[in-house]
Design a protein that fits this description.
The chain folds into two domains: 2-71, no CATH class; 83-169, Orthogonal Bundle (Arc Repressor Mutant, subunit A), CATH 1.10.10. It is globular and about 50 Å long. With 181 residues, the chain is an all-alpha fold. It has helices spanning 2-16, 25-43, 49-71, 83-89, 97-104, 112-119, 122-133, 138-145, 149-169.
Length: 181
């Protein structure tokens, strides 16, 4: 379990660093481990693997955010996304409406890893990941992506609209819908 958590944390951090900063992944992981140990002592051990990963990612997210602020620069390239992170967090019962909508998608008709990029643009998926998974505010996302808060809100609104429209068009009980591609 520990190895799986460590691998997932490394991927999470690597996806959020610029390519020329990948050499810093280990330092961020060590910092997250120190924070994890402190949390373990203060609030106790995690109840399960998902909670352990959530604690590690929360620590890494804060460190990455501070790293960006320290460099005092805005990100102009898209927020690094990992569709697997979105899909792993997707759940029809999720508190976040985007994760709940993604969780409701019918993944039997088309593999969800193929469906998500067809439904949402890379920018929309990046904004959802930043808000729903990383818990950033629209202001933080806008600053990191080098766009306005209004643009972040527009991406979220359009993504919500596309997901809802797709869910409304899904076939019901035994009917199938052909893929128009």
């Amino acid at each position: 379990m520990l190895r799986d958590c460590w691998v997932e944390l490394a991927a999470y951090i690597r996806n959020r660093l610029d390519p020329h900063e990948h050499h810093e992944v280990e330092a961020f992981m060590q910092e997250a481990a120190v924070d994890f140990k402190r949390d373990w002592e203060e609030i106790g051990p995690p109840r399960n693997r998902n909670e352990a990963i959530a604690r590690l990612k929360a620590s890494a997210k804060g460190d990455l955010f501070n790293h960006r602020a320290k460099l005092d620069r805005r990100r102009t390239e898209p927020y690094a996304i990992d569709d697997d992170v979105l899909l792993n967090a997707a759940n029809p019962e999720a508190d976040d409406d985007f994760l709940a909508l993604i969780g409701r998608l019918d993944c039997e008709r088309l593999r969800l890893t193929e469906l998500l990029p067809q439904l949402l643009t890379e920018r929309q998926r990046a904004v959802i990941a930043a808000v729903a998974i990383d818990g950033l505010s629209t202001a933080d996302v806008a600053a990191q992506m080098g766009i306005t808060q209004r643009a972040v809100q527009d991406h979220l609104a359009k993504a919500r609209e596309r997901l809802l429209r797709h869910l409304e068009l899904q076939p019901t009980q035994g009917t199938t819908r052909e893929n128009p591609s």
